[in-house]
Write a structure and sequence with these properties.
8 helices; 2 domains; mainly alpha
Length: about 150
C-alpha cells in the first residue's frame, strides 16, 4: 500500500496511472511518505510518464487501428525465433543462431528464390573471379577460328 510505504512497482504504476488519468499531478504529500529506493522508483516511473506523455494517446491509436501492446511483436518473435531455434536438443552459438535467423527471415518474407540467385552469383564470383575474362577470351578465340575456317 502506498500510504504505508509498502509499495510494489505495479502499485506505483497504478497510482501514477490513476493520478495522471485524473489530470492532477501526484500529490507531494504522497511522494514524501515514501523513503529510500521506493521513492526513487516512484520518481523514475513519474519521470518516464511525464517524458513520454505525448506518446501515450492510446485511445487515438486504437481508433486508428494500430495494435497496442507487445502481442504482435511477441507473436512474430515466437514464429521467427522460438519455433525454429528451441527445438529439442538444439544448441546454438551466436554466429550460427544469427545465420539461421537471417535465413529464416528471408524464407518467411518470401525472398528465398531471389536470395538463392544472389547467393549463387556471389559464390560463383568468389570461386571463379576471372570467369568473365576467360569467357571473353574464349569468345574471341572462337571468332578467330570461325574467321580462319571461312578463309580456307
Amino acid at each position: 500500500m502506498i500510504l504505508k510505504g509498502e509499495v510494489q512497482l505495479t502499485e506505483m504504476a497504478e497510482f501514477v496511472r490513476r493520478a495522471s488519468r485524473d489530470g492532477r499531478p501526484i500529490d507531494e504529500v504522497e511522494r514524501e511518505k515514501l523513503k529510500g529506493s521506493k521513492a526513487k522508483q516512484l520518481s523514475a516511473v513519474i519521470g518516464y510518464l511525464e517524458r513520454n506523455r505525448r506518446f501515450m494517446r492510446y485511445d487515438e491509436y486504437l481508433a486508428a487501428g494500430f495494435p497496442i501492446g507487445s502481442g504482435v511483436a511477441e507473436g512474430a518473435c515466437r514464429h521467427l525465433v522460438t519455433d525454429r531455434m528451441e527445438l529439442t536438443g538444439m544448441r546454438w552459438r551466436v554466429p550460427g543462431a544469427q545465420a539461421m535467423l537471417d535465413l529464416r527471415a528471408v524464407y518467411l518474407n518470401g525472398d528465398w528464390e531471389t536470395f538463392q540467385q544472389h547467393r549463387i552469383k556471389q559464390e560463383r564470383h568468389r570461386l571463379y573471379p576471372y570467369r568473365s575474362l576467360v569467357r571473353r577470351k574464349r569468345g574471341k578465340a572462337a571468332q578467330r577460328e570461325a574467321s580462319y575456317a571461312l578463309m580456307k
